[in-house]
Known about the structure:
Helix content is 52%, strand content 13%. The chain contains 25 helices and 14 strands. It has helices at 2-26, 40-46, 49-53, 84-101, 117-125, 156-162, 169-183, 194-209, 233-236, 242-250, 271-276, 281-303, 310-345, 349-360, 365-377, 383-397, 402-416, 421-430, 442-450, 460-463, 473-477, 493-503, 508-512, 544-557, 571-578, and strands at 31-35, 57-62, 75-81, 106-112, 132-137, 142-145, 148-150, 188-192, 222-227, 256-259, 262-265, 518-522, 533-539, 560-565. This is Vacuolar protein sorting-associated protein 33B.
Amino acid sequence: MAETLDQKLGALAQISQRKLTDILDRIAGTKDFIIHPDLIKPLERIMGVSILRSHGVDKIYKLEKSAPTPCTSNQRVFFIPSDMITLKYVCDKITSEISSSGSERSYHIVFVSGILGCLIQLLEEEGIYGKVRVYPFHWELIRLDSRLLSIEYPTFFKNVFLEGDHSYLSCIARSIWSLQMLLGKPRTTFIQGKLSHLVHEMVNMLSDTVQKPEREDCDIACFIIVDRSVDYVTPLLTSATYTGLLDEVFGIRSGTVEIKGETINLSSADEVYSEVNTRHFSDVYSFLGAKTKELNEELNAFKRSHNMALQEMKAFINQQLQSLMGLKKSLSTHITACEAIIDKMADLFEALITTEHNIIQCQAKRENVTYIEETMAMESADKFRTLRLMGLLSLAQGGLLSEEVADLKSQFLHAHGYENLPCFLNLEKLGILTTQAGLLPHDLKGVALANRVVQAVMLAQKLHLLPETSMDPHGLRNPKDMSYVFSGAYIPIICQLVNFIIKLDTPLEEMAKLIPNCSVFLDSNSGRKPLRSFLVYFLGGVTFAEVAAFRLLEKLTGSRIVIAGTTITNGNQIVKACL
């Protein structure tokens, strides 16, 4: 089953390829391909340059907002996200080229995630609507690693959760519908959150109006769609896994990370990365050291083999040496990455983790506030980290006292500038940094409560998210509990929900009542059959901590979990969306 499932997930890239090449083939002849920088890495996951060239693309240029784009062809294809700001830059370029070179060239715009009415209106206002041809393009979920998928819409959280733009939801619904056409319709579906319910309705509408999944069986027994807002604690906490810290410190984009000028592809096809990606960071450096020692012994043994016959030497060089040298390079890469993480985090990691753990356990509040204040006073203060700690403290306490919020806000704005004031309004809108409802002026209570989002820590007792005992170093290196991703302090909510579903100690309908705004849909044949295969789709992004927790859950239960999201996210991305 595993190979079949992996092959089907691999077919998603082929579907995306076919969609884009069909568009390129409709533009006969050679053309220049101008791509927005944010779309380069996702597109590389779908298709290579050779495929583009085989469909008429001559030159490929990165869309530069200021510099003019060279031109080698009379046909220009702009490959851009569906947003107004980017389109305005493209309109300006097209208008400038038309005014300088006449109308000899033809212009085409491919909108990733579809054509919105506001985009057509902008083209009309700029006076070029009749001079360009536009094409909608929806790529399928992109496979970043084995059973890890992303639609790679990094602005989804800001556009949808903060700005209330629901136009992206149809793209998500299409991606889920495509999955069901490939894998079949699951017999059990869990939906959590307002946005997820809207997407679920859209998926059903596509099934009714376009096509229903023809397969009666399904490779996935249970489909779970959740809003990121159900658990803001997970992204705000600092992940303690190797990949989680890589993302925290350097930022991982479409499965790649840049460290000291070197671009590293993160894939389980890399033998070393597959061993360390979900390990607790305290265990990674020692593992890499032991692996390096083992490799050096193999290479030294070869060097000492003076009596090796010629044929044996040829066989070793052809069959093993190349593999060993590749392993050596990979070890060197990940050792460098570990050293870079240590350089960035060493001075603050222990105090930061202690403070985070105290916050979510509702301990030492005064000391926690003092630590936050001290981080703001530091010359090298990280404003994202400070805002994350403020939000975490608010979530754990069910809101802060009004004077506490005012004091922390004042210190932050003094340290980082008053241009950050809208960030506090946005954090309050999300329900991350709020004032305790009972202490609000009467006329403000309705507004504040209307904007409150489900607080994850309030569910801790129901879902046993906070382990009763601390995890020792051995437990972190050989984890038996998903809380290891936060050094034993907290279990991500959705990971724990899946754990409960696997155990099936409680009827599914009762389980859905554990989390607010959650619904369960069962087909007539579902009964009480054990559920061992899942697809979990996070609207608003999934974290590497959740990925690692799910991988451990697979190992402990023998289940299979496909993880999907609108993007890979972390606390920095959540906070940046609010700025």
